[in-house]
Amino acid sequence: MNFDHTDQQKALREEVIEFCRSSGINDGVDERDRAGEFPRALFEEIGEGLRLQGLTVPEEYGGRGLDPLTAIVGLEAFGYACEDSGLVFAVCAHLLATSVPVNEFGTDEQKRAVLPDLCRGKKVGVNSMTEPGAGSDVGSVAMTAVRDGDDYVLNGTKTLVTNGPAGDVGSVFAVTAPEAGLQSRLTGFLIDLDTPGITRGPQFDLLGKRTTPVGELEFKDVRLPASAVLGGREGIGFAVFNHAMNWERIGLFAAHVGTMQRLTESAVARARTRRQFGQPIGKNQAVAHTIVDMKVRLETARLLTYKAASRLDKARDVAMDASMTKYYVGESLVATARDHLQIFGGAGFLNETGAARPLRDSIGATLYSGTSEIQKNIIAAWLGL
Ligand SMILES: Cc1cc2nc3c(=O)[nH]c(=O)nc-3n(C[C@H](O)[C@H](O)[C@H](O)COP(=O)(O)OP(=O)(O)OC[C@H]3O[C@@H](n4cnc5c(N)ncnc54)[C@H](O)[C@@H]3O)c2cc1C
């Protein structure tokens, strides 16, 4: 067991941090946050400059061809150095829930059609499963895809779709076998969001991560050719979705580990410089111990994430590791963002001091990619409970 980064991982980490510092990506984040504005030009710049959106995609399809653990180190660096959490979320969701499953399951034709533009950030990717009546309970998805000659006709509504309002391509999951069990009820389709019959809803007004465009996608008699079936096979939609979720629960939450490091460093700096009662506030054990808890959470979260990432291309099923990572890192990010704000005192409550936004941005981590409660259900099931 070796806990050190390889030379390649060190170089990637430095490259990502340097890019974030020199590209102006951290300028104007508060203004964008207030306006709820998705910085599409920056999304594209990240694709051109770093190809983060295609980290694990083979070079022949326009990606960087990195192994999962190295890619995860890169995403952690991105969450550390990029202060626009909404942009981090948009990039990670795009990579992990669109580029990765298309690369894994897509036919050669599908990969050639979409991966080069996805990897370069020229197209924005979506992954749409959730519906108004089906969130945690994926088995109650109601969108239908009915075979009609050589085509499928899709009807239904997807909601809470990350990147939806700005999206170009991605996956949508619909029922093709209503009588079948969950394992074979659903089929994934690779969609171009400009297909007639698809309507992108407006961007939701979010509590946090306000620079991510999230919204509804409505499908009304959307006609897709059979070649749009993701992976070329009916009935494997649930497996495709779960594969994407395993990656998202590890990769997106690796970015959150990076954010936890940034917040911990920020809390240390504040506790060393803010003076009350004639000394730095960090000299009070109550404050120091809070930061120690932040540090221990950070290191634990990182170990769990790296361990899960190291199994992504080796273990047949990493679902329990992915759920443990998602649950622990998601809850830890919220706790760390709250501790960070507390150390800033009253100033932390002001939007302009930079401690309030991380707390707002963190809350969603216990909800998206499956809630904390659902992760516990998955872990319990793996334990035979
Ligand atoms: C910012 C954001 C981005 C998102 N992006 C996407 C996306 O790109 N694509 C997509 O498909 N979806 C996306 N989602 C949707 C997300 O996956 C769902 O919100 C999540 O799965 C929960 O579903 P729900 O909101 O319908 O809550 P519900 O399923 O209605 O759950 C409500 C509450 O009940 C609890 N609960 C429900 N069932 C159980 C149970 N069996 N045991 C214990 N507790 C239970 C839940 O944990 C939760 O606390 C996103 C959500 C957010 C907030």
Give a structural overview.
This protein is α+β, with helices and mostly antiparallel strands. It has 3 domains: 7-124, Acyl-CoA dehydrogenase/oxidase, N-terminal domain (Butyryl-Coa Dehydrogenase, subunit A, domain 1), CATH 1.10.540.10; 127-235, Butyryl-CoA Dehydrogenase, subunit A, domain 2; 239-382, Butyryl-CoA Dehydrogenase, subunit A, domain 3 (Up-down Bundle). Helix content is 50%, strand content 14%. It contains 12 helices and 9 strands. It has helices spanning 7-22, 29-35, 40-50, 68-81, 85-105, 108-119, 182-185, 237-273, 285-311, 319-343, 356-363, 372-382; strands at residues 125-128, 144-148, 151-162, 169-175, 186-192, 198-200, 214-225, 275-276, 279-280. It is globular. The model has no long low-confidence stretch (mean pLDDT 97). Flavin-adenine dinucleotide is lined by residues 93, 127-130, 135-136, 160-162, 214, 364, 367-368, 370-371, 373-374, 377.
Residue ranges: pLDDT <50 for 5 or more in a row?
A: none
Shape: globular
- Percent of residues in beta strands: 5-15%
Please give the count of helices. Answer: 12
- Give the strand order of the largest sheet, numbering strands 1, 2, ... along the chain: 2-3-7-6
What Rg is obtained from the alpha carbons, in whole angstroms?
21 Å
List cofactors, ions and other ligands. Answer: flavin-adenine dinucleotide
- Report the end-to-end length measured between terminal Cα atoms: 31 Å
Q: Would you tell me the overall average pLDDT?
A: 97
Number of strands: 9
Tally of individual domains? 3
